[in-house]
Structures are given as structure tokens and as C-alpha cells.
């Protein structure tokens, strides 16, 4: 059945309003239970709350299913692409696809096509060797590229892997030093994953020859930007002469997200749960100051800490009170981590993301707003924007 997208968008907005109504009813019911009102009324309110909660959840699932499209529609374009690239480069490459029936929101499907094309082209050009090179390394002449999709909770996992030569760590290190992204001394102490992250720097390429497929340093930074804009994550694993595997983790839908409610001074913010790595209870006195920036030692990592309100209000980073005892919410973006000082953890809730509107436009560090069960408007933190602000304040 072909349905105009405008109708689906309208229906999705109505579902959003219904979810907000459900949240209000659930909260009213919890407050009602604290009072000693007649048992009959309490029972009725409990019954209608359960009913609207069930119906809303079912309706929400049904509408989201209407918007779902099998990822096979994106995968289907790759066999020909791989065939053409193999032919033009004199290589033998076959492609294997799994999980093509896995469904994703239409908006995500539209955005993920181009990044996947670039990653597959990279595997063909950088990853898979020529038949002679493969024979010399004891491999079959035909290289294999695998595309896999699967669902994991409320996320979709897409994996692009090849059995090629793997990433050249020394070439990446040399190029990073040449570009001024790191120093010779620092490069020796970097882990494999930290070195791989340089691939996503704008203009970065280890290709010796510029071709119509690669070598211009354009692509991987755009891939990462597009995936992060979808609130997704991208990770690279590679082993010399074994192959490279790139994993992309994406949310099923962008309209409704699970959020962590946090209290900071008199404000309440919502952080998308997918971006939260962990929560640590600590006091300011347990932190170390490095160039005036508080740092938390988290096992083998040093995580910079910031005050959410001071950064969002574009104030300078304020020193924190030594007596303050609080929580640190550690959020992550790819391999980077950042700690947020919060006073209270108020639980988690399914929230509907609403635009801030034309009056406010786009505000760095904020993804939008939502209405909580008590009727108050609360701001949703944009983790990508938050890392951008932290960079401006020279926290990271």
C-alpha cells in the first residue's frame, strides 16, 4: 500500500501527542496513589492508566511499523557496484549479504545509503588485494565483502567487513604526524583504536594515488558526520592480512527516544540513553584539575568533566564547589568520552523530540525539547553539539 509521507508524518505527530498524554496520566496515577482517596476511584484510575498505556504502546508500534522499510532496498544496489569496481580495478570480489529483511525507519534508510556506498567502495579499493597479492599471502584469489544487518534492542547494527589486507597502522601513524594531528612521541602511546580514529579526520587519506574511487581524503569524515547526525556510532576493527570490519549502530527511529532525566541546579535536562556509557557517584574533591579543567579517573581513562548549565549558557567553565557531592554521567561519541556533573538522577522516560521552532532555530548542544508528565517543557541534550561546545571551551 502506497501512503503519502505527509499522512504518515501527521499520524506520527498524533502518536507523539498521545505518548505525552499517557505520561501525564501515569504521573497523575502515581501521585493519586499517595493520597488516601476512596479505593474505587483509585482502582478505576489504575485501570484506565493501564489501558491507555497498553493502547498507546500498540499504536506507537503499529505506526512505526508503517514507516519501516527493509534495509534490503539499500543493500540491493551493492552487487552491481562491487562488480563494476572489481572489473575496473582488475580484482576478484564477491559480496555476501545477510539480514536484508531487517527493517529501519524510512528517514534513517534515506540517510544511510551514501555512507554505506562509501564504505563498500573503500573495502573494494583499500581492503581487497589483487589476485596475485592474495595468492602470495595464501588466500583465495576472490576477496569477500560481507554486509550484515541485525536488530539489537531498539538499535540496528550494520556491519561491513572484508577479508583484505587490513588497515596499515604505520601508514596511518605517519600520515597523522605529517598532518599535525599528533606528534611522534604521542603516536607511540596511542592505542590501535585511537590511531584508527584519525581516518575520520577531514582530508585524511593514506592512498598513494588519487583515483576516481579514493585518495582525495573526502568521505570518511562525511560518513562519520552523517552517522552521528542520526545519533549513531561507528567503530573500526582491523587486523593485518586478516581484514577490516566497520560496525555502525543506529536507532530504529528518530522521533521517540529513551531519555535519562537529570537535575542540574534548578534545571532538568534529558540525555538520550543511547549516548550514556555509565553513571558514577563521586565528589568534586576526588577530581583532579588539569589546566583548570576537572578530570575524573575512570579505570584506565581520564575523562574531562563539565557543568552542563555553564557550557549551554556559554559562560566560562566555572570551578565546582569542593563540598559538592554528586553524580557524573559519562556520555560518549565514538571513542571520545565526556563527564557531566549532575545533582539528581530522576529516572528514565520515553520522550517525544519536538523541534525548538523557528523562533529559536538550531541551538548548539540542544537537540530539541519535550513535554514531561507534569506538563513542563524540558530540553533534550544533543551529545554531538555538546562535544562541539566542549571543544570550543578547550575541555577536550
With strands numbered from the N-terminus, the spatial order across the biggest sheet is 10-14-15-13-12-11
Query: How much of the polypeptide forms β-strand, as a percent range?
Result: 25-35%
The largest sheet, given as strand count, sense and whether it forms a barrel, is:
6 strands, mixed
The helix count comes to 12
How many β-strand runs?
18
**Unreliable stretches covering 5 or more consecutive residues:** none
Ends distance = 50 Å
What is the residue-mean pLDDT, rounded to a whole number?
81
The ordered string of helix (H) and strand (E) elements is HHEHHEEHHEEHHHHEEEEEEEEHEEEEEH
Q: Roughly how many Å is the radius of gyration? A: 24 Å
Give an overview in words.
- The protein is of the alpha+beta class and 396 residues long.
- Helix content is 37%, strand content 31%.
- It has twelve helices and 18 strands.
- The strands form four sheets. It has a six-stranded mixed β-sheet.
- Strand 8 and strand 9 (267-272) form a beta hairpin.
- The longest helix is centred in the N-terminal third of the chain and has 29 residues, at 39-67.
- It is globular and about 85 Å long.
- The model has no long low-confidence stretch (mean pLDDT 81).
Amino acid at each position: 500500500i502506497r501512503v503519502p509521507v505527509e499522512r504518515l508524518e501527521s499520524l506520527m505527530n498524533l502518536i507523539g501527542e498521545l505518548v505525552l498524554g499517557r505520561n501525564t496520566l501515569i504521573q497523575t496515577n502515581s501521585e493519586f496513589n499517595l493520597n488516601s482517596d476512596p479505593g474505587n476511584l483509585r482502582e478505576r484510575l489504575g485501570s484506565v492508566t493501564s489501558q491507555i498505556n497498553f493502547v498507546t504502546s500498540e499504536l506507537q508500534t503499529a505506526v512505526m511499523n508503517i514507516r519501516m522499510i527493509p534495509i534490503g532496498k539499500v543493500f540491493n544496489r551493492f552487487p552491481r557496484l562491487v562488480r563494476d569496481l572489481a572489473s575496473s580495478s582488475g580484482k576478484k570480489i564477491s559480496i555476501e549479504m545477510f539480514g536484508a529483511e531487517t527493517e529501519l525507519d524510512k528517514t534513517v534508510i534515506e540517510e544511510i545509503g551514501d555512507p554505506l556506498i562509501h564504505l563498500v567502495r573503500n573495502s573494494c579499493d583499500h581492503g581487497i588485494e589483487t589476485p596475485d597479492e592474495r595468492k602470495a599471502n595464501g588466500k583465495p584469489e576472490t576477496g569477500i565483502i560481507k554486509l550484515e544487518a541485525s536488530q539489537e534492542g531498539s538499535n540496528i547494527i550494520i556491519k561491513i567487513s572484508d577479508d583484505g589486507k587490513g588497515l596499515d597502522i604505520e601508514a596511518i601513524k605517519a600520515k597523522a604526524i605529517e598532518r599535525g594531528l599528533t606528534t611522534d612521541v604521542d603516536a607511540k602511546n596511542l592505542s590501535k583504536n585511537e590511531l584508527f580514529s584519525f581516518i575520520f579526520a577531514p582530508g585524511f587519506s593514506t592512498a598513494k594515488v588519487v583515483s576516481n574511487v579514493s585518495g582525495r581524503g573526502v568521505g570518511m569524515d562525511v560518513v562519520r558526520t552523517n552517522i552521528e547526525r542520526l545519533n549513531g556510532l561507528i567503530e573500526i576493527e582491523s587486523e593485518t592480512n586478516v581484514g577490516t570490519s566497520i560496525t555502525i549502530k543506529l536507532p530504529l527511529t528518530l522521533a521517540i527516544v529513551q531519555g535519562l532525566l537529570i537535575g542540574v541546579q534548578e534545571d532538568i535536562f534529558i540525555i538520550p540513553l543511547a549516548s550514556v556509557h555509565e553513571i558514577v557517584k563521586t565528589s568534586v574533591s576526588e577530581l583532579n584539575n588539569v589546566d583548570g579543567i576537572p578530570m575524573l579517573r575512570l579505570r584506565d581513562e581520564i575523562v574531562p568533566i563539565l557543568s552542563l548549565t555553564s557550557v549551554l549558557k556559554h559562560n566560562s567553565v566555572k570551578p565546582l564547589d569542593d563540598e559538592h557531592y554528586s553524580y557524573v554521567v559519562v556520555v560518549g561519541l565514538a571513542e571520545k568520552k565526556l563527564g557531566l556533573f549532575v545533582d539528581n538522577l530522576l529516572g528514565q522516560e520515553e520522550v517525544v523530540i519536538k523541534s525548538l521552532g523557528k523562533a529559536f532555530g538550531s541551538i548548539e548542544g540542544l537537540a530539541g525539547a519535550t513535554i514531561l508528565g507534569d506538563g513542563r517543557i524540558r530540553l533534550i541534550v544533543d551529545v554531538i553539539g555538546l562535544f562541539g561546545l566542549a571543544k570550543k571551551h578547550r575541555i577536550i
